Amino acid sequence: MAEKPIILLIRREMRLHDHPALFEAARSGAPVIPLLIRDDDLEGLGAAPKWRLGQAIEAFSARLAAQGARLILRSGAPEAVLRALIAEAGAGAVYWTRRYHLAGREADAALKAALRADGVGAESFAGSLLHEPWQIATQEGGPYRVFTPFWKALRGIGVAPPLPAPQELRAPIHWPDSENLADWAMGAAMNRGAAVVARHARVGEETALAQLAEFCDGPIEGYATGRDFPARLATSGLSEPLSVGEISPRQIWHAGLRARDEGRPDAEDFLRELAWRDFAWHLLYHFPQMEHANWRPGWEGFPWRGDSPVVERWRRGQTGEPFVDAAMREMFVTGRMHNRARMIAASYLTKHLLTDWRVGQAWFAECLTDWDRASNAMGWQWVAGCGPDAAPYFRIFNPVTQAKKFDPEGAYLRAWIAEGQRHPPDTALAFFEAAPRSWGLSPGAPPPRPLVDLAEGRTRALAAYETLRRAG
Ligand code: FAD
């Protein structure tokens, strides 16, 4: 049995099940020291994802403690922190789960080389996707750029079953010291919003597994049509636990397959949506520029507008377009936004307000508790029209007709817009509790006036697109 401990570096894998790096570390028979580092990456997170990560760390620490293990917390540059801990604990290897964005890949490659040069084992494992981004390739061996053939290829090769949780985690003779999570103040940037968002968070691996089971037992049937209606509880809500790795996509995939085999055909639509997440990471892996640059060439010339007081009203849910404002407020209160609402809010910003998609992308990265680097970038570029497999630019969502179609009884708008209601529900009022006082908002104020006439905004957007098309 190996005696030298293995350090298990945790970044976004807050689970015992289907965690290949953990599984292999445990299987080796060596003592395992789980470690999470507060590095620049973690410090650079937006307010809401950072708060949510803090919740996940707390829950995972408790879960490890129940197994007789500990999650060691340390701050600093990963290489220096690891070198110090390796020396302290006499560790023989470091295991981690692969990352797929360029900066993460480069940092991990350098870390692997440095550790190996020191004579320490360094192994990286899959764990956060259905497939590694290079495992799905076109006939020519290249990456996919369009979703449907990617989906067909993924569906064709299937998905490996999830791994079980390790039966036992061997403890080291001495547990190294750990910093205190409370001292990291992971919720500091949320201010008073944290208490409001906390009411909506479902945290921890066991909770995520229960949420998956509930969804597959019920709402998954009806998903195909229900998923477009923001007031219905028709989607899984699993993006948040997925973003911090409280659940793995393979677990979700196989639960969906079982639901389909048990006679719930809408499960197939659900699997297809889940594959969009892998597609986003496939794209970001092969085209790292997707995160910051227009994916389609030629869009550099588009007359995007930058940040402005008008954009600030969008951020604050004060555009005067009820569907857009409801969407922005839902995000501020719950940390999440329904997919249809994300499309409407993003379309309004990039088309009716002609704003650069990166401005919206950054605000979502600040406010979403399910923030996912790849899905957010792909989603914004897709809606803006400059992205992979994007909707054509001239397809401009009208928030009023969208509300009529997907919120016919006005339930979503009533849930989130207090102004004008005699007895607004708690959800709508909570926005005023969460919003910074400096915004000076009150539920009793008259509804905000529209920032732009929808027809004029549409005409202006189409004219801007026309100049781009002509220039191309
Ligand atoms: P379900 O409908 O239950 O779907 C199951 C899972 O499939 C989701 O949890 C998610 O992992 C995946 N999925 C579904 N739709 C998409 C999609 N369009 N793209 C990628 N994956 C998808 N999703 C994030 O997880 N994080 C983000 O930061 C994010 N930003 C977005 C920004 C914009 C502008 C847009 C248009 C979409 C964005 N999405 C993002 C995608 C999508 O809105 C969410 O994944 C979805 O609303 C999550 O709700 P759910 O878990 O109930 O989804």
UniProtKB/TrEMBL annotation:
PROSITE patterns: PHR_CRY_ALPHA_BETA. Residues 4-130 form the Photolyase/cryptochrome alpha/beta domain. It holds the Pfam family FAD_binding_7. GO terms for biological process: response to light stimulus. FAD binds at Y223, T235, S236, G237, L238, S239, F270, D370, W371, D372. GO terms for molecular function: deoxyribodipyrimidine photo-lyase activity; DNA binding; FAD binding. Its cofactor is FAD; (6R)-5,10-methylene-5,6,7,8-tetrahydrofolate. The record marks W304, W357, W380 as: Electron transfer via tryptophanyl radical. Binds 1 FAD per subunit. Belongs to the DNA photolyase family. This is Deoxyribodipyrimidine photolyase. It comes from Pseudothioclava arenosa.
